[in-house]
């Protein structure tokens, strides 16, 4: 039972780190990456649909993203969705393809984005700690119901803390990497 609880906690912590990683991909650095716009919701016949389900997204150059919709009638809708987003990018539409030029970030914008990264990292840490709290509650409940001994509970708590420390360090590493990307000129 203890092993199941710890494995479940570790799996959920890994999921929290993966979610943080996906959120970090949406933060704009000076480089063009398709993941910047892939999850952008576009109104497709009344349904909000992720952009990567409507178009091919490429980064042919370090500062350019191209979006080629499979349905050419959606060019205008995709363009409007990009303009409404908080990416701060202006799309260029030539009738077949949308181009997004990724401008250099100024120092002020870099600092704002670093603050966003710090907030997302803290949210990631909180998510990992919430998983730990849930697992601890489960262990205490098992001990209270005499399913495990006090020593087993203490040993499991120590193992859980080591797992938590590992994933908090991973969250911090992802944040540090993203911060370095942002501050790179």
3D architecture notes:
By secondary structure, the chain is α+β, with helices and mostly antiparallel strands. It folds into two domains: 102 residues, Ribosome-recycling factor (Topoisomerase I, Chain A, domain 4); 68 residues, Gyrase A, domain 2, CATH 3.30.1360. The protein is built from four helices and six strands. The protein has a four-stranded antiparallel beta sheet with strand order 3-4-6-5, with helices on one face. Helix 1 runs parallel beside helix 4 and helix 3 packs antiparallel against helix 4. The mean pLDDT is 87.
SSE layout:
Blueprint: H1 2-25, E1 41-44, E2 47-50, E3 55-61, E4 64-69, H2 75-84, E5 91-93, E6 98-101, H3 107-144, H4 150-183
Antiparallel strand pairs: 1-2, 3-4, 4-6, 5-6
Helix pairs in contact: 1-3, 1-4, 3-4
> What are the low-pLDDT stretches, counting only 5+ consecutive residues below 50?
none
Task: Assign the structural class, choosing from mainly alpha, mainly beta, alpha/beta, alpha+beta, or little secondary structure.
Answer: alpha+beta
Order of helices and strands: HEEEEHEEHH
* Approximate shape: elongated
| CATH hierarchy class name of the largest domain | Mainly Alpha
Distance between the termini: 51 Å
Estimated share of beta-strand residues: 15-25%
Give the overall pLDDT as a whole number: 87
| Spatial order of strands in the largest sheet | 3-4-6-5
Helix content percent band? 55-70%
Q: Provide the CATH topology of the largest domain.
A: Topoisomerase I, Chain A, domain 4
- How many helices? The count is 4
Q: Report on the biggest sheet.
A: 4 strands, antiparallel
Question: Could you say how many structural domains there are in total?
Answer: 2
> Taking Cα atoms only, what radius of gyration do you get, to the nearest Å?
22 Å
The CATH superfamily of the largest domain is identified as Ribosome-recycling factor
Number of strands: 6
CATH architecture of the largest domain: Orthogonal Bundle
């Amino acid at each position: 039972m203890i092993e199941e609880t710890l494995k479940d906690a570790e799996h959920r912590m890994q999921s929290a780190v993966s979610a943080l990683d996906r959120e970090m991909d949406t933060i704009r650095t000076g480089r063009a990456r398709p993941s910047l716009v892939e999850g952008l919701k576009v109104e497709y016949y009344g349904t909000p649909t992720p952009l990567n389900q409507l178009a091919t997204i490429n980064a042919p150059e370090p500062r350019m993203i191209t979006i080629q919709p499979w349905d050419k009638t959606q060019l205008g809708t995709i363009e409007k969705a990009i303009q409404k987003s908080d990416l701060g990018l202006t799309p260029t539409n030539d009738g077949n393809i949308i181009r997004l030029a990724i401008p250099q970030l100024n120092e002020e914008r870099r600092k704002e984005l670093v603050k966003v990264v710090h907030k997302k990292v803290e949210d990631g840490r909180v998510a990992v700690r919430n998983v730990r709290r849930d697992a601890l509650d489960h262990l205490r409940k098992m001990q209270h119901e005499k399913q495990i001994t006090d020593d087993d509970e203490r040993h499991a708590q120590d193992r859980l803390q080591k797992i938590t420390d590992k994933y908090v360090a991973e969250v911090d590493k992802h944040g540090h990497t993203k911060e370095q990307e942002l501050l790179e000129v």
